Amino acid sequence: MTYEVVYDVVVVGGGPAGLAGAVVLGRALRSVLVVDANEPRNARAAQVHNVLTRDGVSPRELLAAARADAERYGVRFRSGTVRRVTGAVPDFRVELADGGFARARRVLVATGLADVLPEIPGLAERWGRSVLHCAHCHGHEVRGRAVGLLGDSLAVVMNTLLWRQWTEDVVLFLNDAVDLDAGQRARLDARGVRVVGGRVSAFTGEGVELADGTVVAREVLALHTRVEARAGFLAPLGLLPAELPMGLGTHLPVEDPTGRTRVPGVFVAGNACDAWAQVASSAAAGVTAGEALTMDLVMAESV
Predict the structure, then answer these.
(1) Which of 120, 136, 156, 211 has its CB surrounded by the most CB atoms within 10 Å?
(2) Nearest-5° angle of CA 108, CA 58, CA 259?
(3) Distances (CA, A) of 180 to 54, 171, 285
(4) What is the mean pLDDT of residues 283-291?
């Protein structure tokens, strides 16, 4: 399907950041098209949290309500995956995988991140339910339960101590990936965290299975994932994902807090540029980017 109209803004991604930006732009009487692949990062989660007035709703329910808000202001929607973006201000061409395209004066990228799980049996099928990555997103819901932390090269000790505030039953599995120093051991000991060495070979309904066959009963396993920016479609513009610190993954660099990139007319909001953003902060970034895009268009029309 081809859109002959030139939209003021095409938003790529219909998550909290993209929809919040679309609402701001729609309220500014701008023509907006949201292209969404319907692959939200939190699709496997039962609920979203830390969102005022919406705490505890399902991710799908939250997005449906946000989409209805955008539609009230004339925002249009198109299901699909963006294959590439070409062109330049004021005429970008957003090409879709099905062969269609849309034209836009500006582009807002809000495609988020993809989580790359360690290749350990049992993680993928339990992802978002009993395999978790965000303490503030899920800690309250698993309070008092038996929680394990999967060791990695990131700030695993700090993460373990963070999870400890919701339960006294915490085990850190070093997974042949972490060497604790005396100070770290002392901190974990002070909080009663048990440390288990050896490589983790699986997470089952029984618990965490080690390479030597030992099974440590755990109801929940928390871990860091590597995250990857969903941004290959921006390569024709010269915008490429950059590495995050500590091997965390990749993101799209931005020039300032508005989400402006080094390519005029292209903005980024949400997890795509901020790996630490949650639902509420992603939506806030979308609002900021939407306001910046509105002003960018206003200034272009005033010369």
Answers:
(1) 156
(2) 20
(3) 40, 14, 37
(4) 98
Spatial separation of the C-alpha atoms in residues 70 and 206, rounded to whole Å: 45
Q: The whole model's pTM is what?
A: 0.92
Domain 2-115+225-300 and domain 118-222, same fold? Reply is: yes
Q: Could you state, in order of their start, the residue ranges of all structural domains in the chain?
A: 2-115+225-300, 118-222
Which numeric CATH code is attached to 2-115+225-300?
A: 3.50.50.60
CA distance 34 to 110: 10
Q: How far is CA 247 from CA 40, 95, 237, in A?
A: 23, 31, 25
**pLDDT of 90 over the 90 cut:** yes
Phi, psi of 234 (to 5 degrees): -90, -5
Residues in a beta bridge with 106:
9
